[in-house]
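To whoever picks this up:

The parser on our side crashed when reading a file containing two proteins. I've narrowed it down to the boundary between the first structure block and the second sequence. Both blocks are reproduced below exactly, byte for byte. First block:
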Amino acid sequence: MSRLNTKLGGLVVFSIVLLVLFCVTAVSFALTFALLCNERRHRPCSKEGELFLKDDAPNHLQIPAAKVVAAFVIHSKHRKDREKYIKTLEECLAGLTSLEVVQANDGSLLKNCSIRKSEVGCFLSHMGICKRIASNPEFCGSADNWALIFEDDVIINLSHVETCTQIMQALREFPALTPLAYLGFSEPPKNRLKRVGIYTYVGTAPWALHAYAVRCIHAHKIVSLLSDKICRFPVDMVFHRNVPNAGFVYASKTQCRITPSIYGCGLFAQDESSPTGINFGKNNIKAAWDAYQAVIENLATKVCKK
């Protein structure tokens, strides 16, 4: 009996050691994965991006006022389920500007692309609207003018009045050499940030393009950038790597300070199941993983600074 107890005891100890080793390995893997993801998603602007606004600098050094001259929403006609989002967006912007619905491009029409068909359609749709903005002399005649661009699955995080008020306040706060202003984004930049207003910052262009504004005088630069990289990379990746001084707007102090990857970022989120939604369920596994990554990234940033 004593021998049996000894064997069972040894087996228990061995099992505990294996369990500890497994936990250590899992934590190490998770840390490594989180840090690699962070490094990929938060790289600084490329050397090409640093020269993006160089030619515009002498003419637009003063911080201008702000005026919204147009708003566009990209919509696929077969997505009837997203018409409710467009209607709500139209009602929200009624006191600011009219909303034009633009048919999304078919990504299958362009061959030999290195990205998925859905990404091709998204790329061409955003580039097409930027071309319209850049080719309109009324839009580009003043540094004050902005055009808003949305995708058809946006959700408004604030009331209609609050949203319009904060859009205008944010656009007035951005420096003149801010070509893009993100009104909604899936993940905020974490490094090299500059605060320019209460809820307004400037930094590396964040990810996602479901809601943003283009300063019209810089639209030609956006078009040139996208034309050079047409359908080689997703459009949000192109902006992230090549557009400096991008602005982004939080909707509240909660978004600024309390795990924004869970509570959502910006005045606009995507559909309710998206982690960008301000009411996204905190018990969701994806939300828990995002929160864990945020903690690890913050710790890593502090360690690196020391």
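<<boundary where parser fails>>
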Amino acid sequence: MSAAGSTRPVRWGILGTARIASKVGRAIHDANGAQLVAVASRDESRARFWIDRHTVGHAAADAKLAFLPAAAPVASFGSYLELLRQPDIDAVYIPLPPSLHCEWTCRAAQLGKHVLCEKPLALNLAEAKRMKDACQSANRHLMDGVMWMHHVRTPAMQKVLTSGELGELRRVTSAFSFNAADFPPDNIRFQRALGGGALGDVGWYCVRATLWAFGGLPARVWATARYDRDVDVNLSATLWFAGNRTAAFHCAFDTTWRKWFEVAGTKGSLVCDDFVNPWDAAKARFWVHDQQGQGTQHVHPHCIQEVRMVEVLCGQIRSGRFDARWPEISLATQQVCDAIANSARSEQVISLK
């Protein structure tokens, strides 16, 4: 029986055992109305190892890894397609390399599964459109894994932006970076064919924050980047919007850990120093500064954003109503990232039509 219109939990499978799968797997387990029932890898033993590692009683090396009950009926599969063919799975989470997102999202939709796909959504806008069309044709939901959009803090910040308290919005500035000096050379972030690069990995968040704040696409963009192994490892971009609005962001694999944004208007500004994920989950905060620089802190505790993300998608699935909003947000982000990547490679200003 389909999960649509049902009160039973949405049954989830995970395609792949990447590191992020542990965080989202725990979120699926912790979310109301969700149940993790299967994990697939190209090697069935790796899927079983992942399940054992996260099952109470099997994670003696690090008990913090364990979140599945000892008797959890989580199935392991040695191929992604085998998992997708299971009739008792409603939705899948795809943490595979970006180069595989299009293929396995389309296959999942065709086999009746809703999809939560890691970002960047695809290698390019053409692939992203195919993913959206495949899910829409199958009446299946598609959402990317940008967790901060689902934190309770996010609508609170948006309320400030739309209230007029900051005056006319003029500028969005953001940064997301970390130092990957100790990462192995074969990490997918440094493989262009797999969709590596700072723009897709961390710049995606900055682009999303800019579009979220301004509520539309830029007219044109310009970017400059430093490349290593033909992958952007340090990128800065400028975006021009209608209405005398501009934005800029920096993303990198060679700079210290930063994840902040500022939205500035004619009468004040909003600053969040950890928008991607709170430094302290018990104290998700942001500040609003007036024209004299006086700041007011706003705190929104007790929200685990990855759990909320899963719960939001589960709610949409159970509603039985197709929601095009989330895939449209993903496609807009992909379109802007494509233009920025083109600008950095060509060293030219790129117009968006």
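After patching the parser it read the second block fine. The longest helix spans residues 325-346. The chain has two domains: 10-147, 152-302+335-351.
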